[in-house]
Structure formats: C-alpha cells, structure tokens
Design a protein that fits this description.
The structure is a homodimer. Helices cover 44% and strands 19% of the residues of chain A. The radius of gyration of chain A is 18 Å and the shape is globular. Chain A has 2 domains: 4-85, Arc Repressor Mutant, subunit A (Orthogonal Bundle), CATH 1.10.10; 92-147, Dna Ligase, domain 1, CATH 3.30.1490. Chain A has helices spanning 5-17, 24-35, 42-50, 58-71, 110-113, 121-124, 139-147, and strands spanning 75-77, 85-87, 94-98, 104-107, 125-138. In chain A, helix 3 packs across helix 4. In chain A, strands 4-3-5 form a 3-stranded mixed beta sheet. In chain A, strands 1-2 form a two-stranded antiparallel ribbon. The A-B interface holds A 76-80, 82, 84, 96, 98-99, 105, 107-109, 111-112, 115, 117-118, 120-121, 123-139, 141-142 and B 76-80, 82, 84, 96, 98-99, 105, 107-109, 111-112, 115, 117-118, 120-121, 123-139, 141-142. The first copy, chain A, binds a DNA duplex through residues 19-26, 41-43, 55-60, 62-64, 66, 82-84.
DNA sequence: TTAACTGCAAAACATTTGCACAACC
DNA sequence: GGTTGTGCAAATGTTTTGCAGTTAA
C-alpha cells in the first residue's frame, strides 16, 4: 500500500516550476504510471484510463508522456518491441524481460551498482547511466511451456 | 582486417539446414551487418545496399532481417528509438549508447559476465541473457558540447 | 521444375502535428 | 484574459502483407 504522496508532490512542483498546468489528464496519467508495475505503453495507458475518462484521446497520452519524459518525470524503457514503454520509477533498478509474454519486471542489484566500469570505457565517453537487462522466461511461461511443449 | 569467413560459412550452412535459398540479397545484407559496427536500422542497411543493388527494396530488407532473427543469425538491439537496429555479432558483449548522436558502441566486460545474479531472480524466472546497457555522451559529443554550450 | 524469394503496391501499426475549442492560472 | 492544453482529424514514419513475376536449387 504505497500512496506515492511524495512523488505526486514532486510532480506538481515540477509542473509549476516549468509553467505547465496541472490538468486532470496529466495527473491521472502520472498516477497510473506510479501505480503500475507493468511499464505500460501509451496505448495500454490509454485503454486503462479511457474507462474512467471517456473523452481522453490517445494523442494526449502520447503528448503527455513526451512532456513527462522531458521533465524527467518518466523514463522510456529500452525494449526490442515496436511500442515504447514507460515507467515513473526513480530509484536505481534493472529489468528482467520475459521473451514469452513480454512482461517486464524490475529488480535491484546493489552489488552491481557499486561496481566500477571497465577502463576501456573512459576512451568511449562519459557514462550517465548503467543498467542491466535480462532476457528469459518468467515463472508462468516456464510452467505453460512444461504443460504444452 | 577481418573477412568473417567462418560466419559466412555458418550463415550458408544455417540457410541450407532450414531449406532457405542463399540469395544475393540475403548474402549482401548479412555481409554488411558483419562489416558494420553501427548496429544499423533496416533503413540504413537499405540505403547502404541500394547503391550497389538498385533494384533492392526496403521490404526485402525487413523480411530478410526477420528471417535472420528467427534463425539466430542476427539480433535486434534494445533501444529507446523508433527504428529497430540490428547486429550480427555473436560473442557476449554489451552496449554503450550515446544520447547525443544516437551512436551505439560495443564493449566487453568479462568480470561482469562472470558474476552471478541476485538470488531473488530465481523466483522471477529463468534467465537466458544478461546484458549491460550504458547511456551517456561519446567523446565527439562531449567535445562539441564544450565548444558550443 | 518447383518451391521459395523478391519487388511492387497497398495495408497496418505507432506516433506526431495543425487547428479550434476548452481549461487552468 | 490570456496562455497553455486537449480532442479531433489528418499526416508522418516504421514495419508488415498479398500478389504476380523471378530465381536458386
């Protein structure tokens, strides 16, 4: 049970600081992103939200996500899929991607975070972010594979 | 000077094993992917190849890449961009992504490869691949930023 | 010869943009 | 009140597909 009060406050402050209006749509989109562990696509967010806000349009979701990304309120997740996916999480974490169902799960790995990078990278450039991406099969997909091979 | 003779042989063998024809288009597309360090998109490959093969079509490039991916001859690279990018490399390696110019560089990190994963992941599922993705600015972008801030 | 492949054109899918009305400050 | 945001519709960009002629085996 996490109500994300702090993040909502930070969101409102960030909007004000940039002269952006705190609209119902923006609040709701940010709210769903905070609640969700699913790293939803723009379309998934739209489908979720349009049930409560029937006049919402998909392009508003796209525009809002682009705005949030610029403000650093959400991040676009690296994927090999055709649809972009987003998350509102701020803490350092990593991703496990299930190749069976497309599910994306977060995990933390403090001992990796503490590791230094290989020296050869100094020549390549300056690193701002360092993340691990795992691919494999989640529990559910492993089970259904066993049942119907 | 690497002529990738072995990989070409493996490519031809894989095609034969699956009853696929070794066409000029497939050979050339695979060849450019082997040579390239740029992780090109379908469009980039097309632009490169159409100069020597004026009748080549973009959809053939897409179809060929999809086929190669199924055969495990090429991999789709994880990105946040709108175009998919591909690589033919087989050895274990990782990616540095320049947020300035979109360039993608490979690097190796044997001590990371040797590391075990956090235990909590056993519950999540079975891991097949484990990669690091770095984001930052490459040398060139750092320099041009310094010159025109 | 014959099954597989390519190029063309058109469709499908994901995302962005121009404009007029609506909502926030 | 004035600026910013939204919804609509249409445009753009990326990838996929159906079909008929072409090519490798």
């Amino acid at each position: 049970m996490n109500d994300h009060r702090e993040q909502i406050a930070h969101f409102e402050e960030t909007c004000r600081a940039h002269g952006l209006k705190i609209t119902h749509q923006r609040l709701q989109i940010y709210h769903v992103l905070l609640q969700s562990a699913e790293h939803p696509s723009a379309e998934a967010l739209y489908k979720e939200l349009v049930r409560k806000m029937p006049t919402l349009s998909l392009d508003t979701v796209y525009r809002t996500l682009a705005t949030f990304e610029e403000l650093g309120l959400v991040k676009r997740v690296e994927t090999i899929g055709s649809q972009a996916r987003f998350e509102a999480k701020i803490e350092q974490h990593h991703h496990f991607f299930c190749d069976g169902c497309g599910q994306l799960k977060d995990f933390i790995w403090p001992s990796f975070d503490a590791m230094g990078l290989p020296e050869e990278l100094q020549e390549v450039g300056q690193v701002r972010e360092k993340n691990v991406v795992l691919h494999g099969l989640c529990r559910q997909c492993l089970n259904s594979e066993r049942n119907s091979p």
